[in-house]
Design brief:
mainly alpha; two-stranded antiparallel sheet; 6 helices; single chain
Length: 117
């Protein structure tokens, strides 16, 4: 049996876009993830979590980024209960999202490059 992971919760918490008109791009996601957890998401963590969250109807995505659905916004309303609320949805059924080759690495490099001297 598959279970929701801390990466699923992490990705759900850092998505702030509310629709295709104001999505979170990968650079924003990497930055917010680091700000929240003091760690940079790994590509596999992100693609697996995003796939689970899309399959659950909590997240959508398009060419410009990722955003919470109405159900995703409702679930994240109370930040402390997110993991328990995910468990109530049942087993995650998503498959990892496929990103363009190098897309995630470019987002991480762009973010980390802000700190280079």
């Amino acid at each position: 049996m598959r279970e929701w992971t801390s990466a699923d919760v992490w990705v759900l918490k850092i998505l702030i876009g509310t629709g295709s008109e104001n999505p979170s791009d990968l650079g924003d996601i990497v930055m917010r993830g680091d700000a929240m957890e003091h760690a940079v998401l790994e590509e596999r963590e992100f693609t697996t979590a995003a796939g689970n969250l899309v399959a659950a109807g909590l997240v959508e995505f398009g060419d410009d980024g990722y955003w919470l659905t109405e159900a995703g916004r409702e679930l994240t309303n109370r930040r402390r209960d997110i993991e328990r609320r995910l468990v109530r949805l049942g087993e995650p059924r998503g498959t990892p999202l496929e990103l363009a080759p190098g897309e995630f690495t470019r987002a991480v490099d762009g973010y980390l490059g802000r700190f280079a001297s």
